[in-house]
Amino acid sequence: xxxxxxxxxxxxxxxxxxFVEAHPEVRERILAITLELADDLDFDIGELRRVEVAxxxxxxxxxxxxxxxxxxxxxxxxxxxxxxxxxxxxxxLAPSDS
Length: 98
What we know:
Largest sheet: none
Strand content: under 5%
Helix content: over 70%
Mean pLDDT: 89
């Protein structure tokens, strides 16, 4: 995800798990990634599946017209206050256009 240092590894893992639980079509997509396919691509199957989930998060964010990181936070972080704080930190880290 964008700005991964703003989230703990546990929060990222939780976000991916919750996203997959909420979107059965994504579960089907990741289960279609077999060990044979991962080996053929010379990737770890877990990492390849994580990449596929990240793509699904991005696709949903684009369809909804919202920021991918903000969407992901809805799955990764329970507290609205913590999500707002993380988003503020993320905006502070973003390069300015000026």
